[in-house]
Amino acid sequence: MTNKFDFFLPTRIRFGVGRVNEIGDVVATYGTRCLLVTGPCVEPIKETYDRVKSILSKKGVDIVHFDGVVPNPTIESINEAIELAKQKRVDCVLGVGGGSAIDSAKLIALTYSRKKEIDWKHIFTTYTNPFLYYPSPKESLPLISLTTTSGTGSHVTQAAVVTNSSTDEKLTVFHPSNYPLESIVDPELIVTMPKRGTAATGFDVFAHALESYLGNRTNRITSLLSKIAIKTVFEYLPKVLDDLNNIEFRERMASADTLAGICLANGGATIPHPLSEIIGGICPRISHGECLVLVYPGFLRYAATNSGADKFDKLYKYVTGEQSGSAESNASAFVEKVLQFIKDINLWNSLKDYNVRESEYEKIMNNEILDHLPFAPKEVLQKILQEAYVRE
Description:
Largest sheet: 6 strands, parallel
Number of helices: 14
Oligomer: single chain
Number of strands: 8
CATH superfamily of the largest domain: Dehydroquinate synthase-like - alpha domain
Order of helices and strands: EHEHEHEHHEEEEHHHHHHHHH
Strand content: 5-15%
CATH class of the largest domain: Mainly Alpha
Radius of gyration: 20 Å
Structural class: alpha/beta
Number of domains: 2
Strand order of the largest sheet: 1-8-5-4-2-3
């Protein structure tokens, strides 16, 4: 852990029950015509969208609603939203929902231009480093977010993921302007999340915290926040799954999500996230959190016998309070604890369980991205994916 480090968090976070009622004042600060970016208006989430619209209208904000966000957002859906924004000449963008909605809002705000088409090739080849500064495009729009899940951390990161349907690739665009100017986190809005989605997004929180903790950019701030988030997920995700309407449990998971997102933004991810993006690009029907769970057993076993052993030992002691045992035995115990946790939240599945065809599996195993990931040799990455195909 280095004594010299950078830590960046430009987003103002408004956290707590009832904070949704401030969305009108927040948006009105940035303009009078807002592009509201959401998924389809279906129950039970439609009630949240209607509530947000009512609050905005009372503050004199003109709403242009794009409800065409799809899971694993595509270039096509982003282009469609930008055309609508151009026609209506919006002043700002508000993303309401989970990672797909907020990531879509990020890309819309970042790439918006009334004068030119989006050069996606330039975007994908330029905005590739989460820790570099890139100037904001001249016409980019102010971005606000309102999260309705406890999982993606997108409301406090510089990353936005989009699928290139022509190549089956999920690509991440990193840019400082992807940090929302303001993010509202109101646990009241998260109770509509169903059990399966709660479990999958909750594991995403764990993955953000753990991977940033294991990376070589961890520091005193991110290390502490990661440990708090990990311990919170272990304790409260099972409780939430047993009582989906419990506001206190939802609030705990929302705080863990925010902390883990901050850690991810400053510490980065490691092996599981790029592997999960490969799976998600080829099999978009599998959610991001579920894709992560698929690769975690193989990843944990690899990390425990390599660079992660010492940190697994520290995490085990922090989470359990037990200070005895060798580093090796504690690292192994931590891995077993995570594997049991996956089973406890009913996500112990394989690629075969998700009906991944052999042709899709071959595309996953032979994806050219595996040749370029810096985290481990290609053979190691393929072994992790192989372990995900059939679960013991």
